[in-house]
Amino acid sequence: MGQPVLNRRQLLAAAGGLTVAGAFGFAALGTGADALAAGSRTRVRYWNLFSGGDGYNMIAMLDAFRKDNPDIAVKDSTLQWGNPFYTKLAMAAAGNRAPDLGVMHLGRIAGFSPGRLLDAWDVDLLARYGVREQDFNPTLWKRAVIDGRLYALPLDIHVQLCFYRKDVLKKAGLLGDDGRIVPVTSTGEWFDMLKEAKKATRKGLQTLGLWANDQNFQWWFFVAFYTQLGGTWFDDAATEVTFDTDKAVQVLEFLRRHITDGYTIAGAANSEQFVNGAPFTWEGNWSVPVFDGAELDYGATPLPPVFGKQATHAESHSFVLPHQSDRGGATNEAAHRLAAYVVRHARQWAAGGHIPAYTPTLSTAAYKKLTPQSEYVSAMDHQATEPKVWFAGSTGVLAQRVGPIVVSSTMGSARPDAAARRMKGALTQLLAMKNPMDGRTAAQGGTAA
């Protein structure tokens, strides 16, 4: 599962007085998740991986659906986040015991053997319930399409952000007239900003929380800045590695410099330091409820475009249809209706910091009033994502193999040039590996949009 997830959930629990859900769902919360509505004609079994604040927001959305659709009984179960969830979902689909509706990270779709372990969405049926392709960011929708068919319905994007303390930055003269952080467009401007912020920071606190020794966060940051440089991973046929080691070295040197110049304390409790007065921390948008709960005067923007091009790491929670040999009929229609309803009513979901995928939500007055969500909503238009291959995606093999190499450079145990070469070697090995789900390499799998 990885350290960042544990910290995320611990922080959510501390901030909101929430308890982390166990592997068998939220029955103890009294939401009626395990009770079937009397007289319901159709039941939908729904598996998700949302705990903490996300779990409570999802339950509220499901309860709203139940109220508006009394003819459908939703039996929801919350399972353990990460690979345990994906393993159980794959086994259920392979054994024809799959739920009617599930949730996956969009980056994992290509590796989940679409057509074998996942069923495609009926886009006409989704349109009947108010969800159409034109309602989504084109790049996001394209990621959900495999071999010309839609295999995921995006609920959100969740992104890596630059959180900043307005009180500290005001003292340092780094806030604009609009009360937001002064923009930067180069590495030089960014380190000049850190230098000034450090002068205004209380002794004993770091300037930037960077998750320097965490493989997941370091990988996410690398993906963002490598994308800013226009870096690529593989050719369109997924037969050749196109990874640019020179661009990789630039990113690795940039990440490393935060430690060598004394702006980041490796191993520091980043969120706690931010709450206590550190001017910056780079965190996922799921930290919004934590910092809201601490009643901080803060803002959040996408990661700074220090290499000239805007790009911040993004993933997406998406609804999927786990494979059922007899999928169809009223239950399948109800699954489509439920997913479309939640996607269209994602204002509640945005409270957890996520950016709703359904773009009409973003233009509503209610969403525009959300802070800092409305400050970083532009991330929808410049997503930095992992390559569309079977071994990518949240908690995927790619992050497990390459993330530690990035950490070794950031922490100083490997030179950036040596780390970049190791990264390219790992990518070459992964490209030749076969997906354990279907025994095919990336080049043999269906990943064409």
Task: Sum this structure up briefly.
With 449 residues, this protein is α/β, with parallel strands linked by helices. It has helices at 3-16, 52-68, 83-94, 123-128, 138-143, 166-172, 187-199, 215-228, 245-260, 270-275, 288-293, 329-344, 347-350, 359-362, 365-368, 397-410, 416-432; strands at residues 42-48, 72-78, 101-105, 118-119, 145-146, 149-150, 153-154, 156-165, 208-209, 280-284, 298-302, 312-315, 317-322, 355-356, 383-384.
Helices, strands, pairings?
Elements: H1 3-16, E1 42-48, H2 52-68, E2 72-78, H3 83-94, E3 101-105, E4 118-119, H4 123-128, H5 138-143, E5 145-146, E6 149-150, E7 153-154, E8 156-165, H6 166-172, H7 187-199, E9 208-209, H8 215-228, H9 245-260, H10 270-275, E10 280-284, H11 288-293, E11 298-302, E12 312-315, E13 317-322, H12 329-344, H13 347-350, E14 355-356, H14 359-362, H15 365-368, E15 383-384, H16 397-410, H17 416-432
Parallel strand pairs: 1-2, 1-3, 9-10, 12-15
Antiparallel strand pairs: 3-13, 4-13, 5-6, 7-13, 8-10, 8-11, 8-12, 8-14
Helix pairs in contact: 6-7, 8-16, 9-17, 16-17
The averaged pLDDT comes out at: 90
Biggest pleated sheet:
7 strands, mixed
Radius of gyration: 22 Å
How large is the count of helical segments?
A: 17
> Multimeric state of these chains?
single chain
